[in-house]
Amino acid sequence: MRSKILSILRNQKGYVSGQELCEKFGVSRTAVWKAINLLKEEGYEIEAVPNKGYHIVACPDVILAEEVKSRLQTKWVGKDVKYFEMINSTNTKAKQLAEEGASHGTLVIADEQNRGKGRRGRQWNTPPGTAIAMTLVVRPQMRPEKVSMLTLIMGLAVASACNQLPGVHSGIKWPNDIIVDGKKICGILTEMSAELNAIHYLVIGVGINVNMLSFPEDIKDIATSLALITGRKVNRAEVIQLCMQYFEKYYEEFQKTEDMSVLMEPYNKLLVNCGQEVRVLEPGNEYTGISMGINEQGRLLVKKEDNTLEAVYSGEVSVRGIYGYL
Ligand code: BTN
Fold first, then answer.
1. How far does residue 155's CA lie from ligand 1's centre (Å)?
2. What is the pLDDT of residue 138?
């Protein structure tokens, strides 16, 4: 009920009477009053005026389940949201929940992560109150080899979401880093449980640097945050809402053909280094070529020096521009 009250208060310009809320939810005035008080304890500023009702004055920068659910206008993504104030890794938790039967679209969010996982066994820590660490559980009915495209779709969703914020022009460094002004603001880590022909579930983990104003020495030259880019504090719940709404939209497009034929164009528009020289670092095979964008299978097409076209698979590959991190 709290997420629904929040949603009503947020979408109403004036006051919402206690009576209206009682009738809407079929509960007593005391139950409504208790729910409002709980919201106030969580940091929402809600004004209560006799004979008028309730009015929301300010929302805190919280990413509690009620806050996120009250914002989402999705059909299946985030219908179930699990929030943790502090956790080791949202991917690890999401896998555990998936094993226990969590439904398609369950979203796991944490305010703080102390053993977050990055690609290639790296760490991805999330300090409290300043970032987004979230993982989406999906149960696609498709062959396991198609899965890498879902990571691309999440990348496209995050980049599209960030680009809704004034002053943000993000791009995608294939396969799954989101870049603004030449630095990384988001990383994505997908993990899968599958057998030969069928996927049991996937967890798609997303880490976004939102309100950090500084970074540890080892990543300070390659990392940035939405706050540093926009020069203002960014509401994390709004970013989660936008990411999830775009993901659902793109996932449904993808499902029609089970490939990137429809999404290839918007993806390639956001692809950094497209049409430029890149270096492909495959284990035991390094070469330079021109990045030509992704194909229907989500592979990066690279035109080599001998004019042959290589379709690079995202697995263990790293692609760099020839100048530095990008
Ligand atoms: C990368 O190395 O770029 C991928 C980083 C992915 C980090 C996110 S944070 C939320 C989710 N939980 C994890 O443990 N990792 C992912």
1. 12
2. 98
Rounded to 5 degrees, φ, ψ at 264 are -55, -45
3-state secondary structure (DSSP) of residue 285: strand
**Contact by Cβ (8 Å): 55, 46:** yes
Specify the pTM: 0.90
Largest CA distance in the chain: 78
- Is the CB–ligand 1 distance for residue 135 below 6 Å? yes
Whats the size of the chain, residue-wise?
326
Q: Does the beta carbon of 122 sit less than 6 angstroms from any atom of ligand 1?
A: yes
- Confirm or reject: Cβ of 205 under 6 Å from ligand 1: yes
Q: For residue 41, what are the contacts with CB-CB under 8 A and spacing of at least 6?
A: none
What is d(CA 32, CA 21) in angstroms, rounded to the nearest whole number?
Answer: 7
Closest approach atom of ligand 1 to CA 116:
14
Q: Is the pLDDT of residue 112 over 90?
A: yes
Strands 107-113 and 81-87: parallel
